[in-house]
Amino acid sequence: MPVDYSSLPADSLVLVTGANGFLGSHIAHALLQAGHRVRGTVRSPAKCAWLRAHLDAAHGPGRFSLVPVPDMAAPAAFVDAVRGVDAVAHVASVMGDLCPDPNAVIPVVVRGVTNALDAAAGERRVKAFVYTSSSTAAYSPKPGAGGDVGQETWNEETVKEAWAPPPYEPSRTGKVYGASKMVAEKAVWDWVKKKEKEGEVGFRVNAVLPNVNFGRSLDVKNQGHPTTSGWAFDLATGRLADRMWEAVKPQYYVNVEDTALIHVAALTRPDIDRQRIYAFAGEFNWNTLLHALRKLYPERKFYEDREGLGHDLSRIVDAGKTEELLRDVSGRGWKSLEESLKENLEDLGW
């Protein structure tokens, strides 16, 4: 039976916060491909003129616009940006300038998402709201550890570690990021519960929890290899920092384009509501990546395998359901690790 997308008809206007980021730019692109218009928030539209030029060239002028939100934690930060939109994808975070001090990160991320929700609630046209959460909101991977990861799995451990007494060393950065995502996503569901008690929320609310995103940058000339796409690039080119071998535990990957398409499904499917949607395609560790690189580029030399890395044995309860959503919007399942790495590195010309 065909999926009913009538809750967000073609040519709807969707707000994408953090539209210049690795994932945010792909979400904007995917929504435009699906026939919608997109308004993207960035701190400085002048510095992100490349994004409008790229999307205008791909989808035609007038389909994508940029608006400034210099501080998402400021009161009423998104009120102007949300006027007239039909849906909101809140992707913006503080990943790019993250620091190991939880006081400087976690409250900003929480205020950002609650500001976006409050703004959406003030716009009668809004039919759907999707928050870009993270795997770290649910759990921190540990080699050899298992267990089910599902709708009620929360990473309380990383919050405790993030808020431990100072000093705030650089090694705490990942914990602070994970805690910011967990606390912010909890704030989303607390907001929903509060609104339900007061009456109606007025729109569907979902969270997408991707694990490590690999794949091509939308515009590598202007974006480079940001965030986790840089891990694959550094591994392939022999630039991986020594600390990364230990810091990045075995976990799951997903192609950034698949994550973007899952956001489209969460925004448009009328039957998807109040869901935590896990974007986890397959398990990997550093050796898995190296094996894939050697298969893709047999003539090149890469790092030797590392001993004792282990594997993430967690079972993602709803991974199959997420892949069904992906098939609904794209006609295919998860992109493979090899395909994701090849796309991640295509600008090298190998």
UniProtKB/TrEMBL annotation:
GO molecular function: oxidoreductase activity, acting on the CH-OH group of donors, NAD or NADP as acceptor
Domain of life: Eukaryota
Presence of the UniProt keyword Cell cycle in the record: no
Residue ranges of domain NAD-dependent epimerase/dehydratase in the record: 14-278
Keyword Oxidoreductase found: yes
InterPro entries linked to this entry: Epimerase_deHydtase, NAD(P)-bd_dom_sf, NAD(P)_dehydrat-like
Record's keyword terms, sorted: Oxidoreductase
Pfam families per record: Epimerase
Protein family membership: Belongs to the NAD(P)-dependent epimerase/dehydratase family. Dihydroflavonol-4-reductase subfamily.
PANTHER family to which the protein is assigned, alphabetical: ALDEHYDE REDUCTASE II (AFU_ORTHOLOGUE AFUA_1G11360), NAD DEPENDENT EPIMERASE/DEHYDRATASE
Protein's name in the database: NAD-dependent epimerase/dehydratase
